[in-house]
Amino acid sequence: MINAQLSGQVGALVRHTAATVVLPSYQHLQASEISEKGPGEVVTVADRRSEEVLTAGLLDLLPGSVVVGEEAVSADPAVLRQLAGDAPAWIVDPIDGTANYASGRSPFCVMVALLEAGRPVGAWIYDPIDDLMGHALDGGGAFLNDVRVEPATPLPVEQIRGIAPATYYPADLRAKVTNGKSRLGEVTGGQHCAGREYLDLISRRQQFTMFWRTWPWDHAPGALLVREAGGVVRRLDGADYAISPDPGEGLLAAADEQTWQAVAGALIP
């Protein structure tokens, strides 16, 4: 179903949406254009418009497919059930890092994944401020601005850098991270933008990133990118990451197997 031509068309759609919808409103939003869809969950008119444009474009590119977008699910949680259907499913995060975007700061990204039989087969993550596009097809490798990402060289434990934002961690996990992070080179609190953290992982600026909330639109694109770049993405109990409607199962993504084991041993022993 997915091929290089379709991948290029999706990438072009993502860039077009960022250029025509997301960037024009950046740092120009009025207070009336920002609202809360839930406690601590910000949404803007640009999020909704971006999702509308992406949804129409993706359905046009792949007739018979369905789209599961973050804002559509927010309006009607039953939309998530489409991921379990037989049709190819697009997962859309129209603006990942909305809190940053609404505050007039970066990073933020536009993210899309394509699922077939519930499994990611295509991924696109675009940071429009840095004009940085990560994309991957299942079995075809990962690319950063069309340059293939080579497998990472494992680093000594004391040089491993990564992200473990404890904001949503349960108390026991937060305590483990606090106690164990001194065993690694550097552990920071993150950028409030999963897409950018995945881009930093495949660009080797970071060696790992760890999350608690795992909504499909936040992690389906990044998980495929990391795996196609030679990395590892697993639940905190060591099970391979798979798409799930449960937002609170946690995951750890690392640049390679050795790094995953080292980080897991330090932060989630």
UniProtKB/TrEMBL annotation:
Q: Where does Mg(2+) 1 bind?
A: 70, 95-96, 218
Q: Which BP terms in the Gene Ontology apply to this protein?
A: inositol metabolic process; signal transduction
Cofactor(s) the record lists? Mg(2+)
| Gene3D superfamilies for this protein | 3.40.190.80, Fructose-1,6-Bisphosphatase, subunit A, domain 1
* UniProt-listed InterPro entries: Inositol_monoP_metal-BS (IPR020583), Inositol_monophosphatase-like (IPR000760)
Organism domain of life: Bacteria
Q: Which UniProt keywords apply?
A: Hydrolase, Magnesium, Metal-binding
Task: Please give the coiled-coil regions recorded for this protein.
Answer: none
Q: Which Pfam families match?
A: Inositol_P (PF00459)
| Residue numbers binding Mg(2+) 2 | 93
**Gene Ontology MF, one:** inositol monophosphate 1-phosphatase activity
Q: What is this protein called?
A: Fructose-1,6-bisphosphatase/inositol monophosphatase family enzyme
